[in-house]
Amino acid sequence: MPETSTTADFSSGIAADRVPAHVAFIMDGNGRWAKARGLNRFEGHLRGVKTVMQVVENSFRFGIKTVTLYAFSTENQTRPAEEVSALMKLLKTFIGEYLPELLKNQIRLRVIGDLSWLPEDAANSVREAVSKTENFSGHTLVVALNYSARDEVLRAVSSYAEAVAAGTLPSGKPDWATFSRYLDTDGISDPDLIVRTSGELRLSNFLLLQAAYSEFYFCDTLWPDFSENDLRKALADYASRERRFGKTGEQIGNKKSV
Ligand code: FPP
Domains along the chain? Predict the structure, then answer.
């Protein structure tokens, strides 16, 4: 750890320059949490929303600037209709109840994914919250809704090709900076750390391109049980890693590898 590091925050215990700027969460295990208690899956999602609020609050308190939540994947559309409908209602309620909090704490809400599939009322409440918070810049909450990385790429390629056909972009191989402006994550930094709960070790079509140099942290805790302490453990683990971005240890100034 650098000798000049300062403590980021009152309670995370992690040096400020070792706190990831952007953490993305694959919130998994709501169903198993409910099943273990003899409850229906919806109760797990309901409890999962409480965890969402706690994790967002603690993340920003610990110095993280951007938090992304994988709330609903395009593949989740194939779940039983009553679960999908309950999740959409929960989303609308969450946005309605959480908007005052976003405004009070000056948190910008961004959404990635294809909102056109969402029920009109849910999509409208999301759009309203996105628009009312669009001028905030300190902290950003990104919610992935009806999102999958492959769908995002296909939509980006399609928009890019339209721009080429219209003559607003040159034909030929694009550079990454230009192409990535067509992704849903335009203007959002790549996640430094991706956390997946519930013991599953996969990405499930989440931010496949943006995760090129992300660090991964997997834990067994089911999402509804994911606590402030679990978040601290993830951040401590991240803080101990050496990120090289394809360079050698010497190039990034790691004294141990010199
Ligand atoms: C995965 O658990 C969770 C989901 C597919 C939905 C995540 C949704 C929430 C946490 C609540 C809504 C979020 C917001 C932001 C309003 P699972 O159902 O796959 O659990 P399992 O693998 O144990 O069955």
Answer: 18-148+188-239 (3.40.1180.10)
Answering whether pTM is above 0.90, one says yes
Ligand 1, atom 3, lies closest to the CA of 28
The predicted-structure confidence for 193-249, as pLDDT tens digits, reads as follows: 999 999 999 999 999 999 999 999 999 999 999 999 999 999 999 999 999 999 998
Helix 41-61 to helix 228-239 angle (10° resolution) is 50
Ligand 1 pocket, mutate which of 25, 26, 27, 74 (most atoms under 8 A from CB): 27
**Alpha-carbon distance 133 to 15, whole Å?**
29
Q: Please answer whether residues 146 and 118 qualify as being in contact, where contact means their C-beta atoms are separated by less than 8 angstroms.
A: yes
Which atom in ligand 1 lies closest to the alpha carbon of residue 90? Answer: 16
